[in-house]
Amino acid sequence: MSFNINENIKWVGKIDWELRKFHGEELSTFRGSSYNSYLIRDEKNVLIDTVWSPFAKEFISGLEEEIGLDKIDYIVANHGEVDHSGALSLLAEKIPDTPIYCSGNAVKSLKGQFHKDFNLVTVKTGDKLNIGKKDLIFVEARMLHWPDSMFTYLTGDDVLFSNDAFGQHYANEFMFNDLVPESELYEEAIKYYANILTPFSSLVIKKIQEVLSFNLPVKMICPSHGVIWRKNPEQIIEKYLSWADAYNENQVTIVYDTMWNGTRRMAEEIAEGIKMDDENISIKIFNSARHDLNTIVTEIFKSKAVIAGSPTVNKGYLASLAALLEFIKGLGFKNKKAASFGCYGWSGESVKVINGELEKAGFELADEGLRLMWHPGKEDIAGLREFGKKISRAIK
Length: 396
Hints:
With 396 residues, the protein is of the alpha/beta class. It has two domains: 3-243, Ribonuclease Z/Hydroxyacylglutathione hydrolase-like (Metallo-beta-lactamase, Chain A), CATH 3.60.15; 252-394, Rossmann fold (3-Layer(aba) Sandwich), CATH 3.40.50.360. The chain is built from twelve helices and 22 strands. The chain is elongated and about 80 Å long. 47% of the residues are buried.
């Protein structure tokens, strides 16, 4: 499959309909993904990025149907991660003299992963490559989301090839933002940001401001995953600036694991208390052992507060919640409050331990937490609801 983006640019990548886990098992991709590669034709022909390594042979075969490989004058590697550079090694074997333009850090990552002597040409922000009637302008985008990441801008067509920025893990036969359901698109876009780019939010703001300072018109944004932003591409830039700025909505996420449903009952009554205090607040409740981790993380990203619960097990708490909090610890969420709760039978350490993990993850504790022995009874309901009201008031 290939298709025209405009009269000069063709998409020559791969749609991966079956992908359900990415980055090993770290990221869920329920709508699949795509590995976007772009062929630019001018007086010189340029290939922007390749595809993930399992599809390398298929990619090369499809590319040969579009253009003789020896007719490719330049290759641009915006990022060395193998979902973008996976076919680069095979392609370089076939056209070894073709220069590959990349950032200085990409030299390290490409050589470190493939252990081959590519014909690499190092570029930095502001460097230009003339391809005939137009130029490619390179912009380093360090830590968005690897040290080697960069953007490539095509003058004349005013297209930004943004690599991982502004992308989504989203497979769709209609590869333009104005042809897919907006709700699905933004569901995947915010999930992508929350789980991958959140740790680099301060750099996101600086990089967008830097690119905007160049006063380059942007008619289209072509990321390396998901659909292309051709209608009002500024919308996703504005979203990124919002998401990067300690983002939250009027929402609380309650996440718990439970052994004999006591902690579940606590979660439900706490939610009732929140709703009693503020009927306009959105409340999301998840069992961390039964729901997708990345979906939960996205909802926490959107929330003003997270309330985490678990019974006490071996002086600690249940493993599914531990995995979630460990993942969140690396994301560096800002401007969010938190609290904890849980049942116990004889020792009851879970609330204290969870509080410690929440603080390590950068959350401000809104309460010292609530714990109940055994299973909540009717006499406990008022206290649980009051706990929910207290959290609701703390985030106003």
